[in-house]
Specification:
Blueprint (H helix, E strand, L loop, with lengths): L1 H25 L5 H30 L1
Length: 62
């Protein structure tokens, strides 16, 4: 049970790190509300990405 949770967290973290690098490259300075919005979008998309990857791996195993 702990392995899927950790894998999901790692995938989300990697996605968010890449997303943050892209945002840093695309912008020079963000206001606080923009940082909050970007952080939310990053976490949201990272979670969807991780769940999609994990669901496809589970389908392969079956």
């Amino acid at each position: 049970m702990i392995r899927p949770v950790l894998l999901s967290a790692v995938l989300t973290g990697v996605f968010c790190a890449v997303f943050a690098v892209f945002i840093d490259w695309a912008t020079d300075m963000l206001e606080q509300n923009q940082v909050i919005a970007v952080s939310f979008v990053s976490g949201f998309l990272g979670s969807i990405f991780a769940q999609t990857v994990l669901s496809r791996w589970r389908e392969k195993d079956e």
